[in-house]
Amino acid sequence: MVECFFVAGAHLILTYNRNKPSLDFLNRCRALGAAAAKPIHCNVSDLDSCQNLIKQLDSTVGKIDILINNAGVDSIGPMHVKDPAAIIKDLAINLHGPLFLMRLVMPDFIQAGRGTIINVASRGGTVDLPFNTTYSTSKAALIRLTSSWQAELQLGGHDGIQLYAIHPGAVPSQMTSAVHPEEIMGEYSHLVKGMAQVLENFKDSPYLSGMVSVALATGIAKDCLNGKYFDVQQDLGDVIAQASALRDNSDLYKMQVAFLGDLPNNGGTENIAPEKAFNFPGY
């Protein structure tokens, strides 16, 4: 993703926690056309670290135009035996970090009347992922954070700010390629082989999500995908060409709940007769 934005001529700030980008990588990025490449340490799970990052940016390069929340971790295993502290740590990286940074840059976006945020979520946030529940939960929350905050911005008249949540594709990486040892799964160790077989299907290029993110940042899909969840495995141009279908059905590309009997998902606030006074029988 970084290289794709460099090819587009972006001036990038690269945040890292443990592994600082190598000089060779930075030189490659500059060779690709990067206007600038500046690495800054930031532990996104820590609010103070995020605040320090924004202060450094304000004092060195100024206000940012685009925020990409790409940090993420997963931890396989049965929820009932996981260390609660580890669960909190995972949630802090996958959800709190994006939330912190969105909150810190949003006042400047509102003042400028423009800005783009791309949250790298996951298809795992839209489906149940047994034995990867913390990851699934955090990504689902990130998708909802994106859509709900976008709705808030639009109601406030801030139409120049665009938020997106994307599934980056099935990309082989350090997080997805390792076969999880039987000891982590405990009594469910017989499922490890099946999980490994699923990971063998991760064959997408990271450049796919990178180029889609560059395209989204230009605003090309703003009128139809603003605040939405987009799977980069789908053809973006084809979706944009069908923008009218998205405008006609606001439930497309967002998480939703449906009930039997056409019950509206509105908290019981519409088309329902007032409840009669209830008394327990015999009292």
Automatic annotation (TrEMBL):
Pfam families: adh_short (PF00106). The keyword NADP applies. PROSITE patterns: ADH_SHORT (PS00061). One of its GO terms (molecular function) is oxidoreductase activity. InterPro entries: NAD(P)-bd_dom_sf, Sc_DH/Rdtase_CS, SDR_fam. The keyword Calcium does not apply. It comes from the Eukaryota. Keywords: NADP, Oxidoreductase. Belongs to the short-chain dehydrogenases/reductases (SDR) family. This is Oxidoreductase. It comes from Fusarium oxysporum Fo47.
